[in-house]
Amino acid sequence: MIEITETWIDSLAPNSAAIKNGHDLIKKGKFTVLHQSEDQQVLFGSCAGSGKTPYSPSADFVIPDKPVMRCSCPSRQIPCKHVLGLLYAYAEGKSFSRAAVPDELAAKREKAEKREEKKAKETAEGNAAKPKKVNKSALKKKVIAQLEGLDVLEKLIFSLIRRGLGTLDAKELKVIQEHVKQMGSFYLNGAQVQLRKLHIILTSGGNPERTYNLAAEQFAVIHAFIKKGRAHLNAKLEDPELALDRESSIEEWLGHAWQLSELKEAGLVGPETELIQLSFLSYDDASRMEFVDNGYWMQMDSGEIHCTVQYRPYKAAKLMREEDSFFEVAHVPMLYRYPGDMNRRVRFESFTSRTVDQQDIARIREYAASSYVEAVKRVKNQLKNPLGDPNPVMMLHVEKVVTDDNGRIFIVDAYGETLGLQDLLEDSTVHLLNYLPEYSLKNVAMLVVFEHQTQSGQLRVQPLSIVNGQEIVRLLY
């Protein structure tokens, strides 16, 4: 059976309330029975509930990286608080007596094993489920509709620009909102997001000059989206297969949600590897009308910085498990990569975990970019693409942290080059450096997020985490 730690259990929980409730069950002595199967693959027990009949939670590790959680309670959450409590009890070292698996649970296990055997047999014989056939006629109609939608969007943008930002009134703002709805009819979810973002900028108030600068940047992004989207869709119509673009992020901009099967078919799958999460943040993206859970991870065999992203739509947020920080090493059997440039989005279906050791710390530090000049070149290449992520993340070597006469803080590389630190995200981290010991500010690796500030023309960075010789110090998690 895999190593069961509290961090790993926390990563399974649907929300923070479930974590608390799971611990509370142990504190209140609700578990009357705690068992482990003779083959040590199943944990099961009895937990007192609100009724006379206790609940029967279980965790089956017959497939170590894909444990099956079951419970007789009526909760729709998987795993429920009773299963979480069972796992926490095991992680805390509570006594689990050896016992035979109950007949009802054994029957469920047998059915699951047969399903897995059938899948394995089909794969071995080459009879695995064939990729879903694409209705090319329907897809072609969708592409034509998207092209029509881009024409409508272009007319709107040109009209707004000709009027001038200073003359936009409530009527024009209402027109933008109407076009947001209209873009949905053209299957252009990405256009909806960008128009909402423009509307938010124009109605945010505050410094007019800053508003106009942000709006001008947003117009440029939308224009690039129209231009690249149109070129891609026209090329797609000429392709007999109407194939998806496997290299750039244009499909996502146009509203395509990649399925794992599509990523696998496109060859965007890597073999087993290990990942360490270096930073995590959750925020409310009003332009998407979703909550976003975003983690930055280092792939330990390459040093690449990837991101995991979970979108939780406002309407369904309460029903979805909220992601959280992860403090161990995740061993991933198969890593799915999305098309893109720096910090490619990744996904994985299952994982096992282990604690971070000193060798992991040393390796992370080795991957840190030693030259800021080279790092800035790479970031600028990313920023040249208007549809690229405007906030790329990198791991940099920091020889030291210095403060000038005006109180501004800079990081310095081994060649004496500097980068100015500034809070770019909603959550502030720069001031936290003042509370760190000296050994966390000299000869360290620092995960930073970049941003190009158009008014000053300079690149600024915000620290997300620091890796000294002993540990990972998260400034944002």
TrEMBL record:
UniProt organism field: Paenibacillus dendrobii
GO molecular function: zinc ion binding
Membrane-crossing segments per the record: none
Keywords assigned by UniProt, alphabetized: Metal-binding, Zinc, Zinc-finger
UniProt-annotated stretches for the region Disordered: 110-133
Basic and acidic residues: compositionally biased ranges: 110-124
UniProt cross-references to InterPro entries, sorted A to Z: Znf_SWIM
Taxonomy of the source species: Bacteria, Bacillati, Bacillota, Bacilli, Bacillales
Annotated ranges, domain SWIM-type: 61-91
Source taxon at top rank: Bacteria
Protein name: SWIM zinc finger family protein
Pfam families reported for this sequence: SWIM (PF04434)
